[in-house]
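Below is how a single chain appears once it has passed through the pipeline. First comes the sequence as given, then the structure the pipeline wrote out for it. We keep one example in the README because the format questions we get most often are answered faster by looking than by reading.
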Amino acid sequence: MELDSDREVMRYISFGEPTPREVYEREIMPYFLAMYETASPVGYWAAETSDEGTFVGWAHLRPDRIDPGPQELGYRLRREAWGRGYATELGRALVDYGFERVGAGTITARALSANAGSRRVMEKCGLRYEGDFVWPANVVPGRSEAERAGVKYSLTRRQWQEARPA
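Resulting structure:
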């Protein structure tokens, strides 16, 4: 709740609108937890510092919400954790996990076009710019097409294998 209540954290997710507690309790947490009841190897992981175990955010690898087939990478961090490499570390770990353990053929990630920080993380994780798109209105409700402008990055298993050190 604290993470999703920070307007700056939510700037490129919900245009700065905090997630209401009732939505978190009624929709988001049950969705997160339901993934684990299926014994699926994908889901959401809390991110904590290795020294003190301080919660810094979370990351996910889940079935892509827009394109059937690929796995989707995502991450959300507390503002205090920005610029420390945590998103890149999480992203790289989940990319490797996705190809090694989940058996993903492709891993995708998307962001609003203006989210330069997230785009840099995607590139550092090895994902490649695939193109521009407009988020569907049901995913980003109440916003104009221009506000829903996004970018998609992806990485195939073959690209990942070719980029790995021998």
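The longest helix spans residues 21-37.

See the next section for the split statistics.
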